[in-house]
Amino acid sequence: METAVAEKGRRRTADPCSGHVLVEREQEIDVLRGVVGDLVSGTPRTVLLRGPGGAGRSALLRWTRTHAETAGCRVLVGRCSRGETARRFGLVAQLDPLRQGDSEDLATTMKATLLEDAARRPLLLLLDDVQWIDRASARWLRSMITRPAHRPVAVVFAVTDPFARDWQEYGIRSLPAAMTVRRLRPLSEPAVLAVLRARAGDTIDPGTAHVVAESTGGRPALVHDAADLLAAGPHPCGEAELVRRCAEAFADRAAALVAGLPTELADLVRVLALEPGNLDFELVCALAGVRTMSPAEARELVSGLALGAGGTPLAPAADRILTGLDAQHRADLYARAATIAHRGALPDQDVARLLLRARPIGERWVVETLCREATRARNVREFGTAVELLARALREPLDDLRRAVLEIDLAIASTPDSPLAGERLLRRVLLREGGPDLVDVRLDAADLLVAKGDDVEARSAIGTACGRAGVTPAERAALSALYWIADDASHDVTEFELPVSVDQPGRPDGPDEAGVAAWQLAVRGVDLAATRALAMTALEGETRLVTSQVLVCRTLMLTDDSTEALAGLGRAIALAQERGSGVLGAVAHLARGKVHARDGRFEEAAADLETALAQHPRQCWHPVALPGLVAFEAVLALERGHVSLAESLLDVEWEPRARRGFGWAQVLLAQGVLDLHRDRPADAVTHLRECGRRLLARGWTNPALLGWRALTAIALRALGRQEEAAALIMEELGLAGRWGTRTAVGSGHLVASLVLTGAEAEQHCAEAVRLLRGSAWRFRYAQALAELARYRVSSGAIGEALDLLLESDQLAGEFGSLHLAEHLRATAARIGDLLSPTERRITELAGCGLSNVDIATQLAVSRRTVEWHLSGIYRKTGVTRRHQLRALLDLAVVEEGERDDAGA
Q1: Which stretches are transmembrane (predicted)?
Q2: What is the pLDDT of residue 238?
């Protein structure tokens, strides 16, 4: 079919002016050819060509002129325009330029002359855009076409679609013969392909024709523009560029058409262009001030313009159509449209879209609508849209409190794409003068500044705020606490004094001060009882500061109060959600992930980490805060067996300022752990000692915070520097004893068992199991069980070792730790190596529940042989009960295949 249409298009005639082929206009050309033929034979005809702009009406008129002149007819051509609607006899003057004037006598004389000449030579009038004819010319034309039927005068009108009905009715009422009406249809895709190939060559494929047909609506004028584009230049036009240029051409023609419309109709189209399709049409008519026609008539006229789908302007055309309005008029129209949309209960999304371009309205519903829609946009991570909506809301008249709240919301929405802009807004709110009603808002701003991680900016702004006159004691206390929570700066920076004495933990009055005092005691590793009391006071107190709650829960993690820490972090997460802040939520989730990881719940820790990154993507983290995040990711990856992932996380180019905070000490620790995994003990010592140096510079000596001494001791032992390793581990044990939690002391003994040797090491391990049993750090208890099982196997207490292994294995299954599982498998394999192949097979069958008789039958041996082997198995392994054989199976020490797979 495409080929047939293309061939037919090549044979068909072309526009004599442009040379464009007239495809799918065969029926119209036949009609026009018939008009000329009838005219030559003395029969008058009247034809109306109708269609939207760019449908090819003018091209058909040009073809008709050439054909009629060739047939010997006299052809007079006129084209009306909007600019000449007020000029009397403007069209008449075009028909005979030699006769100029605007008098009735001249027009009457011209009519008589034309009719007289028509008797000798057929006359054809070709009139384009007749919808713009002036009144005087319209009267003259009516007298011409209501002539006696024997006069050979034919008329062909071309009218833009919205106005064609009037001319059809005019013809029915006035003409002696019926008017022939031809509506020009859009070109089909095969026809578009024919046009494109005729202009740009046969290489044009049907897919390109489809794109052009969709982009132009099949209008011949636009299709020919696209054909010219494809034919120009040596480089083919890509699909996206083709669509864009077709849309531009469409918009140009639409804007030109609207500019020529009557004022009332043009205003109506412009209002539709403000928000196409979303407003009730009757409301649109009211907004545009339509008075001379009904909404139904107006809809028909607009639909006839064919500016887009459903009669409303397409997006590319809408902007061009609106260029005729000045900015103030446009803003007023948007404001009126938004008001009508709000009263019509349209969805917030539609009303907000109008408000974005409207002038300030000064009504309460405006800000409420914009804020609701901004919240929706932020929830679906459309942060740019949320910023735009909130910025628009701030243009409305607002009191100080509402303005400050909106500025904080705008700062939150700005964080993902423009973090610096968000920080400037927060600083502005924090430093704003105002009464007691602004206290909470200023504290919210300070809380967010601290959470963002820029310690220098946060401490500078908070310090300035504390120094303002009129700050209440309660506000100053909360700001002072936040100042110290942001304490990630280098310690050569001058700091103002915090009005809280950490030497007197009972002194702080508010929960935020108590939380800071508890943290400062905890990192120094002194006075566990006072630290716990202060932390619990802070946890139970009323505070709106998320970072303060997070700090308290980090302290409770160090005091072995994980249950309370998790409960507090749950409340902090809920508060962050209530405030709609992704960065506050991320900080709280990251802290909860660390509590989960410390307790061995690595899947929960990974889930919290994933949520933190979802709420505050990696690229949004401040360079000072980012190292803490990456360090936790890396350590978690190592614990889950993803060594390469941990290496890639740590192998990045860090900004210089990233090295100044506590997060950098965590990166150094993670790098040291990675070095140990990669068997690089010397590098591990370097990284871990630097980590320790940075912590000691702060006076942070608590081994429960970051166990750099223990890891350094393990690395030193690997290097053969046993005395240094032993000295470090003794220092670790001393500091852990001073702090006094079961996990800190138990962990110190566990590491001592890894660094020291012989009976001393085994005693430390047994002490670690005793201390960690029933402690909050169950994962570390499982590690201690596995390590003690290794010692018991070496000392020959196989039965006890199996019980230890089984208990540890149950915990390992709960935690999902790959390293712990490998440790258990290696220790259990040592037990399995004590057995011969036959004893392993019997152990397997007995562990599966088979009786001695069944085992003998399956192995084709006597029952006594099985009993003899089982006695040897019990003697070698120390097993005294048959269920312990099952434990050997659970630990995969019997099946060689499983051990081989694990090794692989």
Answers
A1: none
A2: 66
